[in-house]
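Quick start: read one record
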Amino acid sequence: MRLGIRYRLLVPLGLLLVGVVGASLWSAHIAARRAEARVARQVHDISQTLAAARYPLTSPVLEQVKSYSGAEFIFVRADGVRISTFATEPTELPSDVALDAAGETELGPPVNVAGAIYRCRRLLLKDPHPFTGGMVLIFYPEAQLDEAIADAERPSFLGLAFGLLAVGLTFGIGQRLVNRIRTLERRTREIAAGDFSPMPLPRTNDELRDLSASVNEMADRLARLQQAVQTTERLRLTGQLASGLAHQLRNSATGAKLAVQVYLAEHTNDDAEALAVTLRQLTLMEANLRRFIDLGRPSAGRRSQVSLSTLLTDVVDLHRPRCKHVGIDLHWNLPATDICMEGDEGQLGDLFANLIGNAVDAVGNNGEVAVTLDNPHGQVIIEVSDTGAGPAPDVAARLFEPFVTGQPEGIGLGLAVARHAAEAHNGRITWRRDEGRTVFRVEFPAAKP
């Protein structure tokens, strides 16, 4: 049987409420009985005082006793003379049977005097009282008795009221707590369904607010994890695609390269500059096809001492014919001192080829592309800048992710390959907009001049 938190909170509250009500009513009942007994003792003490008195019971004496006790008196002497403190005497008195039935600790039967209710008690005067044979009727106001009982019951009822208020507040707090827990439950179900948006934090700074903040942190981490999983899946699919296409495309590239080599061998006297560039492009394409399958996976690669100056010169020379054809100024600032580093020449060639190729694509016709290589403080810095418009805002934040591109003809793999190559050499690649130019910057930790 499932017992929710609400009922776990309400059951003790219900038991507490029953206990508070029962205890308060019992206390009020006991207090009322004690108040009535106290008034009865007071009236009994008055009667005993009058019975033991050795002074005449005159009207001034009765008025004085009335001022002390709050009761009204009627004194009937043995000769029938009546002395009363009432302004209007009662028209009808209780019977002797009713008066005799009231014990010494009771107030006696009720009497209506001019619309007010009194409790009547009789005192018979006996020897050695000066007015032996007389009778004193003591009338105690019912209103004063009720007031005394109310004063006695008031603390109990106040305790009951505060107890009910405390129980009500506890119930309200418990209900609010349950509602907040249900909100967290709904939010966790939404996260399980794939909604990782943050939930608003409650204004009350308590443990549930900390729990809500933890849920938001969990959702943020899950969102990043999901994005990483999706990226990994795209990389895996890219590897599968590359491995499937590499064999067919590489066969074609190898065949074209062999044909060019055969032609160059048979026609040694012809101008072979254009065909030499074609041969180098085919060789580069063949190498790229072999490396596409390594995208997203660590590569052991063959490491050797690589001349970055020479490698960048070769890559720039590969792009010069195209730049010359479309009117792009390609500037390559060759450093005075050759800069070398330990690395995989093929991966580094891919890195530079993708950066320069992307810059040429971004410029269009009649633009400018600049390539620089520097070695400040032993650190290698390569920058490729262009005068193009820069990446679109919708792809700028994800520029190095696979299949993210702002070019209609692009497939979004060039910069992903470039980042993979840079990270494989403990480097990093960044980009920025600087005075109307798009600048891609590659940094490697150390190199030899």
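Residues 120 and 135 are 13 Å apart (CA to CA).
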